[in-house]
Design a protein that fits this description.
alpha+beta, two-stranded antiparallel sheet
Length: 113
């Protein structure tokens, strides 16, 4: 991967979001810069060139933005991983801990064989 240090200026720090004491990294400026967005997608996809990739999981919600073009580049299917209650069919759920509490993500039971 080529030096990506120039990308850090395109990630905005938002303190105390979503709660006091949390530092949120906002990638909206990076997504709005066509060269940066292309660089990030290509760099991530290039890491898997030559590998067999059947599926790319895009985790709610910023993950969708990068997973979709990466899946396209790799010729792989895209699997949306969503917050609990957002998927309309049978799901599997996995919990995890955040700095400010617990949460869970779901995917359709047939999304991965």
């Amino acid at each position: 991967m080529t030096d990506a240090s120039w990308l850090t200026g395109l990630v905005r720090d938002i303190p105390d979001f979503p709660e006091p004491g949390i530092l949120f990294r906002d990638i909206t400026p990076l997504l709005g810069d066509v060269d940066a967005f292309r660089f990030v997608v290509d760099a991530l996809a290039d890491e898997f060139q030559g590998e067999t990739v059947d599926r790319v999981l895009g985790v709610e919600a910023r993950g969708f933005l990068l997973a979709a073009p990466i899946a396209y580049r790799l010729g792989a299917a895209l699997v949306p991983v969503r917050k609990v209650g957002k998927l309309p069919w049978k799901t599997e759920k996995e919990g995890y801990q955040l700095e400010y509490g617990d949460d869970a993500l779901e995917l359709h039971v047939d999304a991965i064989e």
